[in-house]
Specification:
Blueprint lengths: L4 E5 L2 E6 L4 E7 L4 E4 L5 H14 L4 E5 L5 H4 L10 E4 H21 L4 H5 L8 E3 L2 E6 L2 E7 L9 E5 L4 E9 L14 H9 L7 E6 L5 H22 L5 H5 L6 H15 L6
Bound molecules: zinc ion.
């Protein structure tokens, strides 16, 4: 069982779940563990707890939500009374859109609808705007907000003593990132700021898909720049949306939403 965890840095473990190809990270100290994200349902969160026990991890003393999407935060309740950290707007997002997210997920995934129905949405109770440093035994874990991207509340989680960076859904490996709640015109600058924190040996753990390094962040950044540039040209009337689909390195059916969202942001439709 423990073999399904991968130690990507000193006492930093990643477990990749088939459901949504999602990565959950556990940072271990002597007496407590910190986990990054809590999965989609209480049932999935309890499975995560079992998997942490199988790993031999100390009890979960701290939880971090990378952002306010259901697959990252709906398991929160299971880890109480641990404090749960997140960006201030992660709380806002869960409070304002949590029930809508639940309804959408129930409709699209009938097999987990009953589990989703029982979720008690329990947003972070420890919040910040720009950065926070958490002490976990003898280790430090840094939470940093770099700007809008996948949502308006994505944070990254760094473990400096292990040279690991958890990117949440600012980066997805092997799939097109989800732009449905995103800010495509801001995402390139946010990804640039992230890249600046990635050293030659840094392990980058995306929200979904394989862990990677600098080259993956660079190629993701190029894609975000292409989406923003294509959106600008559509908005300016230089090209059609259909033409723009050819200009981004995503499969055409999946390129539509990012570009439409970029145009919507340029038109000011995402503010307020
Ligand atoms: Zn997400």
């Amino acid at each position: 069982m423990a073999s399904q965890w991968t130690e990507v840095g000193d006492r930093v473990f990643v477990r990749r779940y088939a459901f949504f190809d999602q990565n959950i990270v556990a940072v271990l100290a002597d007496d407590e563990s910190l986990i990054v994200d809590t999965r989609t349902t209480h049932a999935q969160a309890r499975e995560l707890l079992d998997d942490l026990r199988a790993l031999g991890a100390p009890p979960v003393g701290v939880v971090v939500n990378t952002h306010g999407h259901y697959d990252h935060a709906f398991g929160n309740r299971v880890f109480r009374p641990a404090p749960i950290w997140g960006h201030s707007r992660c709380v806002t997002m869960l409070e304002r859109t949590g029930d809508r997210q639940r309804e959408g997920a129930m409709a699209s995934m009938p097999d987990v609808a009953a589990d989703l129905a029982e979720v008690v949405i329990d947003p972070p109770d420890r919040t910040f705007l720009d950065r926070a440093t958490l002490c976990l035994g003898d280790r430090e874990v840094e939470l940093t907000y770099l700007g809008r991207g996948h949502t308006d509340n994505d944070i990254i989680v760094r473990v400096p003593d292990a040279d690991v960076l958890c990117a949440g859904d600012l980066l997805e490996n092997g799939a097109v990132p989800f732009f449905g709640d995103g800010f495509p015109m801001d995402w390139p600058a946010t990804a640039e700021a992230l890249l600046a924190l990635v050293g030659p040996a840094t392990v980058v753990v995306p929200g979904h898909g394989d862990q990677a390094g600098r080259q993956f962040v660079e190629s993701s950044l190029e894609a975000f720049r292409a989406v923003a540039a294509a959106g600008r040209r559509v908005q300016a009337g230089e090209i059609t949306l259909e033409d723009a689909l050819e200009l981004v390195p995503y499969p055409a059916p999946e390129a539509r939403e990012p570009i439409e969202r970029a145009v919507a942001q340029l038109r000011g439709e995402l503010d307020g």
